[in-house]
Amino acid sequence: MFETLYQTLIMALCLGGVALLVSMLLTKALLKLLPKWGLVDKPDFKRHIHTVAVPRGGGLAIIVAFVAVILSAFSVFSFQNAPSIFQEILKFLAPLAILVPVGIIDDKRGLRPKTKLLFQIVSAVIAWYFGIRLQSLFGLHIHGWPCLLLTVLWIVAFINAFNMIDGVDGLASGIGIISAICMAIISLSFQRYVFATLLIVFAASLLGFLFYNCYPARLFMGDTGSMFIGYVLAVAGLKLNARLASVASIFIPILACGIPLLDIIFAVWRRIMGSPHRISDKFTIAQEPATEAGGDVPEDQAAASEEGPYAHENLPRRLGRIAGRLGTADQSHIHHRLLQYFQRDQKKTVRNIYSIAMIMGIVAIVCSYCPKWNLALVLMLVLGTFAFIINRLAFIELWQTTEIVYHNFQTPHTGVVISYVLNPLADLLFIFLAYICSSHHTHLAFVFLVRYLCIIMIVLFFSRSYRVFWNFAVSDDYLRLIATLLFGFFLAWNSDFLIGSPNIPSVHSFAATIAIAFILMERLGIHYFRNAQASHSAKEASETIQHRDLLLGVSPLTRFYRNLLMSDMERAASEKIIGLVVFNKTFLHSYCFGMKVLGDAEHLAEIARETKATKVVLTKTLAPEDVDALKQLCQEHHLEFYEFSYSEKKLN
């Protein structure tokens, strides 16, 4: 038994059929029993979308059907390695001794989120104790307390992800079926026949319940069922990751269960950023300071509104407040958004989410078949899929986060935070990923990787890289950064000779290329964001008078003026540089300092008329008579004329 693919499919389909029948019979029985036990979900007309009382706790049928069929199969049939496999199944089922009672109590009486989280963590620790662990991450083997922390985080995240997604009839069970079938196909391709059979039986148990849970639902699975689904798929993902043990293997279970995981990521993101709890027509709900009828906002209230009620709050309290928001329920989950989009049509909502889940499952299957050496293709598929779905579904988080970042980007401490916190963390991540990608042909020991990272980061810290405000950087800063990184990778390469460890020059050269490319993209992205911020501020201030500037002359003053204008958000909101007018015709039909050269100074009046300019700024030192001539020309054409210069003045 389970020796060939054909035998496995026959056995899996037979056991799945039995599980389907048992699940349907148990679900039908629970329709009558659950109300007698007091397990009924009464609508509160706040978050619930159903309008009548519905029995809750139908997940018991899924659990009993799955466990009964699996244990019965191992009792009736005999096959190779049956005792060891049976022991592994018992270890897999052990944490359910905590999750199932907690789910039943929560369905009946309701538990606080912190209490449920505590029991979920305990069950995840039990699973880790019995050998269900996240032992490989991006091709690196993990042991000890990092393995424990990551395993607990993985299992708890899956449990809560399926708990949150269970908000529309048939949604959680349907996504569970899609995810289980996807993982079963991948397991069959890697000849994990027993594991694939378990997943098929699990999917069949969910299907039997889905007959009574699809719209209009006759009963709900409750936390009992949603936590069980999350736990089973979390363990399945860990087993798949351990079996594949490649750099990209961690992405396969994440893609297979992509919709619930994205939903919980959006929820955490939304609650940390303080996004609204309900969906409005404008994606956000602005909270205006209260005013009296026809009156103005009081000064103290306006100040509180501008600075925020937590402006003077210390860091521990702020972190505690943010952690408290994580347990706050809202109506901004993926299914709530699609429900609003489809005008409360649950069938269309579920069908569309099923379609997205199947697309992500297909991508996961394709990634599992990609050769181990073709890491770039896997990353392209994964990042492309998530980018598309996040762009389509995370409009609330993207909108609110953009508003917050735009607001905070102009504060004085932002440059310090970017230079001394965000940039080092980004550099560390990019260098780490660069070495991981470059060493997929060879086995790079974790100790070597830590040594390389330490050497390169020390070189960066002792250079001027983190003393540069990259939102105001110039080309010399980028060239210095490239030279510093090359020197750091060179020292990392030479450390292999000094310590006597195996040396692979291609690993260092390929890693240096990848790291430099991504670090430069990150630094240039800060420049781009600053320019986008100025455009964003200009759109917000579209009702104000716009100054359209022509910069006259090409010199270091020109670049300095542009940077000065872009750093002043108030001026950037009402003032725009149209382009350059030059004295040297060599610069014609080109770009200088990122600005287009519109023509020469002889045609200044024509250029100003065509571009509707209102202001001319001289950014080049000229003779006094030439300045007077330009001043007279601007007066004749009703243009404001300014001369920009920086100079020093002795004060003693």
Q: Helical residue percent?
A: 55-70%
Q: Tell me the Rg in angstroms.
A: 31 Å
Oligomer: single chain
Strand order of the largest sheet: 7-8-6-5-9-10
Secondary structure tally, helices: 25
Domain module count: 3
Instruction: Give the end-to-end Cα distance, rounded to a whole number of Å.
Output: 97 Å
Provide mean pLDDT, rounded: 79
Structural class call reads mainly alpha
- Runs in which pLDDT lies below 50 for 5 or more consecutive residues are 276-311
Q: Could you say which overall geometry the principal axes of the C-alpha atoms support?
A: elongated
- What share of residues are in beta strands? 5-15%
Strand count, sense and barrel status of the largest sheet are:
6 strands, mixed
Tell me the number of strands.
Answer: 10
Tags for this entry?
3 domains; 6% strand; six-stranded mixed β-sheet; 10 strands; 652 residues; 25 helices; Rossmann fold; two-stranded antiparallel sheet; mainly alpha
Structural features, described:
By secondary structure, this protein is mainly alpha-helical. The protein has 3 domains: 5-272 and 328-395, no CATH class; 410-537, no CATH class; 545-643, 3-Layer(aba) Sandwich (Rossmann fold). The protein is 65% helix and 6% strand. Helix 1 (5-36) packs across helix 2, helix 15 (346-369) packs antiparallel against helix 16 (375-393) and helix 19 packs across helix 20. The longest helix is centred in the C-terminal third of the chain and has 36 residues, at 505-540. The protein is elongated, with a radius of gyration of 31 Å. It starts with a helix and ends in a 9-residue tail after the last strand.
